[in-house]
Task: structure prediction
Amino acid sequence: MEGSETRTDGNAIAGVLQEVFVREVTTCRIACAGCGTIEPIGAEHAYTQAPGIVLRCRHCEDVLLVVTQPPGRTLLAFPRSRWMEIAAEP
Result:
């Protein structure tokens, strides 16, 4: 079976993303690509006094998440994160 037979576009995951992005994310765990530690997002260091928000690893200060909000949209970047775990609701 070729890859094109099992592949679809990103619209196929709309339902999953809609479920994920309405959850409380400060309790989600995030893994730092720099030092390898895993912490809840709410435990990391947030810098909010800038045009955007920067979330840094509390252990090594690598940038885990950048949030900017130009008019009409929100941009998320995960420059030094390996993954983010969003637990299912009970």
The two ends are 37 Å apart (CA to CA). The longest strand covers residues 63-68. Residues 21 and 45 are 21 Å apart (CA to CA). The chain has one domain: 3-85.
